[in-house]
Write a structure and sequence with these properties.
single chain; 309 residues; alpha/beta; three-stranded antiparallel β-sheet; 9 helices; globular; binds nicotinamide-adenine-dinucleotide
Length: 309
């Protein structure tokens, strides 16, 4: 749902990977959904066998996965909170359409602010928490792995690293579970010995992750390629029941001492969505960073007018 830059690029990468039997594009702008679907379907000869078309709410009835990238853009003079409020109303109406079709799908929220909108969608649905998830810090973790791989001159696939918390300014690097080639980062750094001031060098990577989206937006107005790939990874682990571990945004129910909020935390994913929130034993500074993210998000959730449920 949402056939703009992110939604259409995701549909395209999903089709290239052959991960679905059928991909249906929906958008409030029906011409856009139709045009995007036609443009893609003309490449059908070069995709794995897959049906691609535009559709309507009745398509939710037998969907396995519904990905929501629908969102309003910030208007001139509009506050961030004003935008959150407008997008919360959009997400609620999307969820109402899905609920009206009795859909069996897992719902993946991508629209920003993703953690807040995931919470809003979960509340609206009344479903088990694992079935409504957000893209969380999966993209941020991919950026972190890429930057660590460049700094350490090691293939990105040998870098295991997670950004946790809010998909936004209060996110943090979970250094305590970062490892390269099976070695905890401190051990790897001692072995490698190439960086001068290690602490400063590593901290600058986290700042770069945090500011990545802003930089890209300065250059081209929005981001869509890497996020589409991150969404395809999430879709793969759900649709193929892979039990992959990804830092999706999940409703916390006491894990990490938090409730009533969604945050990017490592989760085991299956065909049912979040199968298990993995509660990593974080050191005190990382626990504090996670609590700060949770407080920030709860404050915004508390200020929203969500109307009757
Ligand atoms: N979570 C992440 O990591 C991440 C990364 C990048 C972008 N985003 C977010 O994804 C969202 C989409 O970004 P984009 O660049 O594709 O924006 P876009 O403006 O290109 O597309 C948004 C689409 O949503 C549609 N839409 C609006 N209201 C709708 C409704 N009620 N029902 C159906 N469709 C509706 C619009 O017509 C538009 O086509 C934004 O909220 C953006 O901030 C999230």
């Amino acid at each position: 749902m949402g056939a703009g830059a992110v939604g259409s690029t995701f549909a395209y990468t999903l089709a290239l990977r052959g991960l679905a039997d059928e991909i249906v594009l929906l958008d409030a702008n029906r011409d856009l959904a139709k045009g995007q679907a036609l443009d893609m379907v003309h490449g059908q000869a070069f995709f794995p066998s897959i049906q691609i078309r535009d559709g309507g709410p009745s398509d939710y009835a037998d969907a396995a996965l519904i990905v929501i990238t629908a969102g309003a853009k910030q208007q001139p003079g509009e506050s961030r909170l004003g935008l959150v409020q407008r997008n919360a109303v959009i997400i609620q109406s999307c969820m109402d359409q899905i609920l009206a079709q009795n859909s069996p799908a897992v719902v993946l929220i991508v629209s920003n602010p993703v953690d807040i909108l995931t919470y809003v969608a979960h509340k609206r649905s009344g479903w088990p928490r694992g079935r409504v998830i957000g893209s969380g810090t999966v993209l941020d973790s991919a950026r972190f792995r890429h930057l660590l791989s460049k700094r350490c001159d090691v293939d990105v696939h040998n870098v295991h690293a997670h950004i946790m918390g809010e998909h936004g300014d209060s996110e943090f690097a979970a250094w305590s579970i970062t490892n390269l080639a099976g070695m905890p980062i401190e051990q790897y750094c001692r072995t490698c010995g190439k960086c001068g001031d290690k602490a400063a060098s590593l901290q600058s990577i986290v700042e770069e992750v945090r500011h990545s989206a802003y930089h890209i937006i300065d250059y081209k107005g929005a981001t869509w390629f890497a996020v589409a790939l991150a969404l395809t990874e999430i879709a793969a682990t759900i649709l193929r029941n892979e039990r992959g571990v990804l830092t999706v945004s999940a409703v916390l129910d006491g894990e990490y001492g938090q409730k009533g909020v969604c945050l990017g935390v490592p989760c085991i994913m299956s065909v049912r969505g979040v199968e298990q929130v993995l509660e990593v034993e974080l050191p005190p500074d990382e626990q504090r960073a996670l609590a700060k993210s949770a407080d920030t998000l709860r404050e915004i959730i508390g200020s929203l007018d969500l109307g009757p449920s």
